[in-house]
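PROTEIN DESIGN WORKSHEET
SECTION A - STRUCTURE
LENGTH: 501
TOKENS:
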């Protein structure tokens, strides 16, 4: 079968013919367009070429016969035939863009022989508590031509994405303000600590693991006075303890790690916000939702939250690189009434608030260059997330996590999170059997094609592992990720010397 590949290279259109001898590699269904586009790089010229190629996929699909062939030596041979053919017949005329197309074609070929469900190159299934696996369409959204960050096509997408965040956080208040900054979840802490909190302010940090320590460090870096209210590992401070702490001192803010990714402990921001409103109404409620937004219920307005911060790489389902926040009118007032200027330049709300407001009003604006590709990926992921009721998404995460947790129990193991109501729905932290460390088991689970994470809590890091269950791994059961995780855990435990009950 002949496939016409059209590529735009360095300023001119070059046509080349790529002869594909075996059709098996291309047996893909309706995803054909995504697969081709995905395999290309994010350059403008290549994207154009992908569009040209894509419509030809169905005819290839319809004539193919088998997808079960693993990526084996005969597939390699066909791949090398394809490469040789491209090289020998077209190398002299191909532009750099077109030769990239040939590389992309090679990748498509190899992925098509190995993975029926996804257009992505074969890779271990990443089931750590973030970054998570990507949906093909999210990756494809980044394979777009370069564009101006102040051009209307991108400004429109940015504005729409900010509006999507209002839906994700469930806020309709005109006083709320979503933000998308280039950075990671940590940048959200800096925004809080350098804008909303002032030097000398007291902050109550509800500590459920490693990330409470880090948020405290960040607050102290900008001159705040954090007080940590802790609990035993696997537990969380009780409502009574929180109430008593709030009665004992005036706090500018209370911070909650919704899911502490180091322990898998779930906090209850709704319950905490209720106590705060009752006992210390001026205190702001700040939620670190890095490991919860997109997989745990969050109702920004209804629960009276003031800040929820997150990052793109966890349940939100986009690549790492975006710091995402929702601020309440009260949080913005706290920033506006500060006595000293913000303690940061890049993280300053003085710089970012007008930009975000302009983007949402679809007006071009500039403070620091955003990433059009990442914002497009986020937009695609949020479009998918918001295409079903959020309640359904949360229920799916709960069910998938339950399945893992039940399997863990059936293997005779316990979770760090001691009670069911303390257990996160986007991850599971599992105590390993006595005498087995993460280093004993993780190489075996990796051999099963699954990436889990080791322990992170400083005091017990060598005694447990963490399993993520977020995003497409949950919402697309046909990928089989959750079953794969359970099987890998079982196999890994046995290989590490554990006798299953
Ligand atoms: C609960 C929590 N907070 C904050 C962070 C920091 O986010 P980032 O690594 O994106 O800077 C993480 C990272 O995993 C996290 O899990």
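SECTION B - SEQUENCE
RESIDUE ASSIGNMENT:
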């Amino acid at each position: 079968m002949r496939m016409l590949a059209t590529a735009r290279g360095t300023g001119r259109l070059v046509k080349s013919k790529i002869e594909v001898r075996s059709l098996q590699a291309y047996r893909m269904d309706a995803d054909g367009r995504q697969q081709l586009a995905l395999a290309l790089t994010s350059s403008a010229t290549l994207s154009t070429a992908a569009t040209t190629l894509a419509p030809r996929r169905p005819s290839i699909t319809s004539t193919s016969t088998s997808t079960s062939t693993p990526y084996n030596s005969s597939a390699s041979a066909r791949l090398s035939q394809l490469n040789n053919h491209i090289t020998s017949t077209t190398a002299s005329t191909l532009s750099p863009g077109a030769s990239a197309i040939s590389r992309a074609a090679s990748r498509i070929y190899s992925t098509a022989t190995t993975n029926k469900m996804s257009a992505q190159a074969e890779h271990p299934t990443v089931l750590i508590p973030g970054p998570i696996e990507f949906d093909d369409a999210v990756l494809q959204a980044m394979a777009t031509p370069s564009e101006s960050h102040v051009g209307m096509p991108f400004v429109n997408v940015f504005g729409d994405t900010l509006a999507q965040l209002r839906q994700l956080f469930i806020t309709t208040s005109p006083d709320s303000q979503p933000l998308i900054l280039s950075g990671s979840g940590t940048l959200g802490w800096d925004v809080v600590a350098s804008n909303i909190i002032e030097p000398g302010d007291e902050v109550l940090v509800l500590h459920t693991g490693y990330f409470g320590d880090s948020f405290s460090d960040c607050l102290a870096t900008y001159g705040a006075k954090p007080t940590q209210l802790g609990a035993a590992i696997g537990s969380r401070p009780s409502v009574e303890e929180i109430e008593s702490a709030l009665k004992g001192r005036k706090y500018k803010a209370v911070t909650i790690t919704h899911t502490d990714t180091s322990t898998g402990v779930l906090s209850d921001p709704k319950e905490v916000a209720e106590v705060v409103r009752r006992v210390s109404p001026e205190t702001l409620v700040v939620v670190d939702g890095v490991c919860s937004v997109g997989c745990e219920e969050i109702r920004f307005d209804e629960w009276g939250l003031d800040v929820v911060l997150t990052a793109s790489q966890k349940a939100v389902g986009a690549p790492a690189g975006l710091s995402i926040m929702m601020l309440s009118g009260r949080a913005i007032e706290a920033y506006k009434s500060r006595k000293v200027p913000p303690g940061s330049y890049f993280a300053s709300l003085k710089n970012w608030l007008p930009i975000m407001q302009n983007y949402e009003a679809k007006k071009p604006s500039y403070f620091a260059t955003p990433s059009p590709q990442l914002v497009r990926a986020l937009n695609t992921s949020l479009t998918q997330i918001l295409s079903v009721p959020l309640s359904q998404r949360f229920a799916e995460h709960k069910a998938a996590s339950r399945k893992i947790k039940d399997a863990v129990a059936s293997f005779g193991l316990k979770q760090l999170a001691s009670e069911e109501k303390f257990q996160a729905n986007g991850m599971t932290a599992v105590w390993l059997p006595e005498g087995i460390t993460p280093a004993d088991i993780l190489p075996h689970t990796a051999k099963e094609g699954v990436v889990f994470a080791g322990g992170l809590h400083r005091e017990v890091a060598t005694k447990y592992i963490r399993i993520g269950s977020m995003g497409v791994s949950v919402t697309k059961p046909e990928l089989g990720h959750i079953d794969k995780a359970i099987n890998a855990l079982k196999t890994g435990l046995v290989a590490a010397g554990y006798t299953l009950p």
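SECTION C - NOTES
Residues 437 and 463 are 6 Å apart (CA to CA).
Residues 2-121 form one domain.
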